[in-house]
Structures are given as structure tokens and as C-alpha cells.
Amino acid sequence: MKEFMLLFRQPDYDYSNTSPKEMQALAKKWQDWVEVITSQKKLASHGPRLAMEGKVLKPGGVITDGPFVEIKEKLGSFIIIKAKNLEDATTLAHGCPALDMGGSVEIRPIF
After folding, report:
1. How many domains does the chain have?
2. Most-buried pick from 19, 31, 54, 73 (CB within 10 A)?
């Protein structure tokens, strides 16, 4: 088995108007999806949820506000999975709750 990182990108979304019940339902979707991967013994590790704000340091000491300010989505979190190949890893990414919110999942092999 090889390892792949699934990076969860989501639109710039304001969660302040989301009710606690809606947040619980969203958290449950994530837990259920990761539980399926875990039950297949394909979860290698997971990263914590990332804050939406941040800084980007570029060559020459240039600092910009926020990650990925050039695009309309932000990196929200990641997990590392075990899969036979890129196609298998992509199959595991289906069902990710980020997709339900207009986000995307980037699948990258780890060398």
C-alpha cells in the first residue's frame, strides 16, 4: 500500500450563521466518512482542522494575508490514507462532505 494525502478545500464560507444543529450534522458526516475509511484499515493519519485565516510567506520576504488569497477556496484540513494506487485513493475520496459544500478534495501521492 502507498500513502496519499487528501487535502480538503472549501469555498470561503461564513459559518457564523450556521446553527449548532447544522454544525453537528456536518461533523457527523465527516465522522461517518472517516469511519468508513478507518474500518477498511486505510486511514494512516489525520490532520487537525485548520483556521481560515493565515499568512503566506513568498520569496523576497513578501507576506500576504490569508492562505490562497488568489482563489476562492481555502484549505480546511487533510488526512493521510493508504491505497493501492491513485485511482483507489480517488475512489476513497468520493463521499467526502467537502464536496457537498461546493468544495473539492485534492489527492496527492506521498513520496
Report:
1. 1
2. 73
DSSP assignment of 10-55 equals: EE---GGG--HHHHHHHHHHHHHHHHHHHHTT-EEEEPPPPPS--E
CA–CA distance, 99 with 86 (Å, rounded to integer)? 19
Name the residue range of residue 87's domain: 2-13+20-109
Residue 48's CB is within 10 A of a number of other CB atoms, namely 7
What type of residue sits at position 4?
F
All 3 cell numbers of residue 20?
Answer: 449548532
| Terminal-to-terminal C-alpha distance of the chain | 12
Other Cβ atoms within 10 Å of 97 Cβ, number: 20
Output b/e per residue, 20-43; b: 16+ Cβ within 10 A: eeeeeeeeebeeebbeebeeeebb
C-alpha cell at 33: 466518512
Q: What CATH number is associated with residue 42?
A: 3.30.70.1060
